[in-house]
Amino acid sequence: MQLHINNKTYETDAEADTPLLWVIRDDLDMTGTKYGCGLAQCGACSVMIDGQVVRSCVTPVETAVGKNITTIEAIESDELGKRVVAAWVKHQVPQCGYCQSGQVMAATALLKHNAHPSEEEIAAAMVNLCRCGTYNAINAAIRDIAGAGDKV
């Protein structure tokens, strides 16, 4: 199978039902996408497929063939992704950092589809879990990018 990841084409001989996460991490050695729960609950494994955030731990690799996959390794090659990472630094979002690649992917996907989300839209999109509880900083970073500051 051929996968188009971060604007490069990769070959994999993984079984069709292998979770995309394991192909990305184990076969292609892109370890920024994290394993969290394996049940699509936590979001640490979030990547974008054709601009939509997906949980790669439950996404069979065969469903990603022929699509554009973006992982955290390439997020700063996108102008909006670069702004998201800068806002994460500015607002000192990460504590342990484990979930942050998935959080950045979710925030970038949200802002690509809605440049000025409401507080409710942010809450609906940002459902990844953070054991450190950095949700207020995450929301502040997103509001900052959206141009709302603390007004939302």
UniProtKB/TrEMBL annotation:
Domain (2Fe-2S ferredoxin-type): residue spans on this chain: 1-75
Key words of the record: 2Fe-2S, Iron, Iron-sulfur, Metal-binding, Oxidoreductase
Task: State the Gene Ontology terms under molecular function.
Answer: 2 iron, 2 sulfur cluster binding; metal ion binding; oxidoreductase activity
Put simply, this protein is called (2Fe-2S)-binding protein
Which source organism does the UniProt entry give? Pantoea rodasii
